[in-house]
Amino acid sequence: MNQNEWLAERFEANRAHLRAVAFRMLGSTGEADDAVQEAWIRLSRSDANDIENLSGWLTTVTARVCLDILRARESRREEPLGAPLHDPIAKHEDGSDPEHEAVMADSVGLALLVVLETLTPAERLSFVLHDMFAMPFEEIAPIVGRSTAAARQLASRARRRVQGAPEVADADLTRKREVVDAFLAASREGDFEALIALLDPGVVLRSDPTAVRTGASEELRGASAVAGTFSGRARVAKLALIDGAVGAVWAPGGSPRVVFSFTITEGKIVKIELIADPERLGQMELTLLKD
């Protein structure tokens, strides 16, 4: 076995771990795969003879790549119009189905993912690497460009925010997920009465110009009108986490084409937005959830 084959074999042995690290830092299966692939590229260009601990080296490199992605994400939020189309739902290069792999989102917990999104990149990285993967602060410090004590403080601040997050958040997300899941099921089955039961009497459906050009109504008001529009439809829409909120996405061929954003109050859907503009879709973090 030559060195390249040996490196590839060792990398594959670490791939699952690296994906887990990257997903918990990024909250996106697509970006996690990108980070892992970048780690492989950097490994293939390095002199493996100089690497004493390959697993540790790969984890560190993956963490650095994730930190760059998180910082770039912050920049895109400041200047969103320049954001490129991002497709975390695309098929993996190894042919696996990201919908299956997005079960990771459930195992981490929707509420935790939402709280992690509120942390700074350095806080998130320090917390994830230390509290979730037991990496020593001495190894975390160089990655975030801080002293060991500062890295410890970053993780401590993040930990307080995670522990201080209202416990109701997880239950609230779970309830909203149940509502959206039931709505999609009723829509697929053409169950008009079930749809009516899930909709607020004054519910509003709005579609952006791109969705309107594909045949969607620009605006509809009232439970009967909205239920009639969705009855027997949404057969291929998938439950998804959209910027931390439960919604749905239509992604034919793995490419997101329409996002369904739901506003839910007291267990009733009060507003649905259909978003199909590619630029807006490119600014969203989309993670498919297990049905």
CATH architecture descriptor name of the largest domain: Up-down Bundle
Q: Which structural category do the helix and sheet elements fall into? A: alpha+beta
- Give the H and E element order: HHHHHHHHHHHEHEHEEEEHE
The tally of domains stands at: 2
Helix count, DSSP H or I runs of 4 or more residues? 14
Query: Regarding quaternary structure, how should these chains be classified?
Result: single chain
Measure the end-to-end span: 43 Å
- Give the strand line-up of the largest sheet: 2-1-6-5-4-3-7
Shape by Cα distribution: elongated
The total count of strands amounts to 7
Instruction: Please bin the fraction of helical residues.
Output: 55-70%
Average pLDDT for all residues: 81
Radius of gyration equals 21 Å
Largest sheet: 7 strands, mixed
In the CATH scheme, what's the topology name of the largest domain? Answer: Butyryl-CoA Dehydrogenase, subunit A, domain 3
Strand content: 5-15%
Q: Regions with pLDDT < 50 over 5+ consecutive residues? A: 77-107
